[in-house]
Automatic annotation (TrEMBL):
Positions of the Transposase IS701-like DDE domain: 73-154
Keyword Transmembrane helix: yes
Stretch forming the signal peptide: none
Full protein name: Transposase IS701-like DDE domain-containing protein
Protein source organism: Heyndrickxia coagulans 36D1
Transmembrane segments: 30-53
InterPro entries reported in the protein's UniProt record: IS701-like_DDE_dom, RNaseH-like_sf
Glycoprotein among keywords: no
Source taxon at top rank: Bacteria
Amino acid sequence: MIAKNSLNNQLPNEIKSTFKELNVLKHLRIAGITKSFGFSCAYIFQLIFCMIFENKNWFRMLESKKATDIPAKDTVYRFLNQSTFNWRRFLLSLVASVIGKVSKLTRHDRPKVLILDDSSYDRNRSKHVELLARCFDHASQKMRFYKGFRMLTLG
């Protein structure tokens, strides 16, 4: 009998060590991001996270050889849009953990700064781009809606 590979072993070693060091999956549970059946939240989150570094979108992933082992498109979209998941709490607990680890690496008298930027990324000429949304630009003087994404950057 051939044992099937574990679903949690899909992360590359570089990312796996980062997930373990920062306890990302623990912060998911703290934020109440859990499921009762089907693919686990940890598996779906890791899959979406890895897609960024593989430079793939969901459509290409469903066409690949891995298509039999991954959840359907609607499962992923329901996971991302679930109203009971507290994504803000997840980000805050993860950032607090990161700040705690980074502050140990610098001197006490040195100023410590993390800069978060949620810039707008316009794609007004696009129609069929995955996860394209209608967003409101509150930062510019125009105060207008645009088609595109919100880019969250941590520096």
